[in-house]
Design brief:
By secondary structure, this protein is mostly beta strands. The protein has four helices and 27 strands.
């Protein structure tokens, strides 16, 4: 969802030790890869994007200082030092994990290490990943924690038609390791989920390279507001949610009034088969033209792009995940079967409202979308 990235935590007191015992000698840190990585194509490379969750080391007066990644043969394929890890780790905060919070909140139960490995065409993509995490205490004493090996998923990313059509569409908060989508874990029924791991927010520049003209606080000032959104393939509508009002641009709805159901706004979910589901979020109220159980084909109109739910600007939130639930699922990578990259948008696209660096059109085939790519969709 648009610029929504909330996390929280409770200290894990279970692992506290008597003060006279050295932390580096007595600590017990558990770590695990959250989900088997699915290789996907991006900008001419093959990428693995995944996470490691681990016991909070702070009650032990320890910190993560090093991470080495090896393949099935024991060959090092990536190494991250303390400085690099400082930008890759999300720590829980101090909010209490109440029974109510366990039902639905932005609380993070354990620290998460976000990994993003890229392999060129000359490099072999590993079949299995092994990680060694090194923790240090205040005296510099070290302890290595070996994470259980993780095999890559057998499935390839699903290849889709575009959910929107036309020129100058911008893939915001798209495939990258630092976007708000990539880091947006949610606590639902006592478990953290990362539905938005590979989500994209689609907005569109007009022919002058602007997001809006006139009053930026009116949805109608955004020419792409109300644009039809299309089925990305043959599918069955597995869920429809309606009745959430559009927001004025620049304003999020009151956090106290939002629910797990209303956060994606008016939305449609498609069952694409093989355990893959597509979410179309933040649609205009009453614009949805399909019903649950309806069969659709590639290109069919589902509804119209809006600004409902947890959103402060018109856009289409789109992601693929492994269950017919907008948030209680795990995000999966996908690729578009055809688009032409024509430019790169400015990082502060929502604030500035215009700006991109044009380049020679670069047709891409079977690829995911780098963050801020401006593209023409067939």
């Amino acid at each position: 969802m648009t610029r929504w990235n909330i996390f929280a935590f409770i200290p894990l007191l279970l692992f506290l030790f008597p003060p006279q015992t050295h932390a580096a000698e007595s600590m017990h840190i558990e770590a695990t890869v959250r989900q088997s990585p699915v290789p996907f194509p991006l900008s001419g490379k093959t990428v693995l994007a995944y996470e490691i969750s681990f016991t909070d080391p702070r009650p032990l007066h320890l910190e993560l200082a090093d991470c080495v990644v090896t393949n099935q043969a024991g060959t090092t394929i990536a190494h991250f030092d303390k400085k690099a890890l400082s930008t890759m780790v999300k720590l829980p905060d101090e909010r209490e994990v109440t029974d109510k919070a366990k039902q639905f909140s932005g609380i993070l139960l354990r620290p998460i290490l976000f990994l993003w490995l890229s392999f060129s065409s000359e490099q072999a993509v590993p079949l299995q990943l092994q990680h060694t995490l090194t923790f240090t205490d205040a005296k510099g004493e070290q302890k290595n924690v070996v994470v259980p090996p993780a095999k890559l998923a057998d499935a390839a990313p699903v290849v889709l038609a575009s959910p929107v059509q036309g020129s100058n569409w911008v893939a915001t908060a798209a495939f990258a390791n630092t976007t708000y989508h990539r880091r947006s874990l949610l606590l639902i029924e006592g478990k953290n989920y990362l539905a938005q791991r590979f989500a994209v927010d689609f907005v569109q520049y007009n022919d002058k390279g602007q997001l809006f003209t006139g009053d930026r606080t009116k949805n109608e000032s955004y020419a792409y507001y109300g644009t039809p959104v299309h089925s990305v393939g043959q599918a069955t509508v597995c869920s429809v949610y309606n009745g959430v009002p559009d927001n004025p641009p620049g304003e999020f709805p009151d956090r106290n009034t939002m629910t797990r159901e209303s956060i994606p706004g008016n939305n449609v979910m498609l069952d694409l088969g093989n355990g893959r589901f597509a979410l179309y979020g933040h649609l205009i109220p009453d614009s949805i033209v399909v019903k649950q159980g309806q069969h659709v084909k590639k290109g069919d109109v589902l509804g119209r792009l809006g600004n409902s739910g947890n959103s402060d600007a018109p856009h289409l939130h789109f992601h693929i995940c492994d269950a017919c639930d907008p948030l209680q699922c795990e995000g999966l990578p996908f690729a578009l079967n055809r688009y032409t990259a024509v430019a790169t948008a400015v990082p502060d696209i929502y604030e500035q409202g215009y700006g991109m660096t044009s380049h020679e059109p670069m047709p891409e085939v079977l690829t995911a979308m780098p963050d801020l790519t401006v593209m023409d969709m067939p």
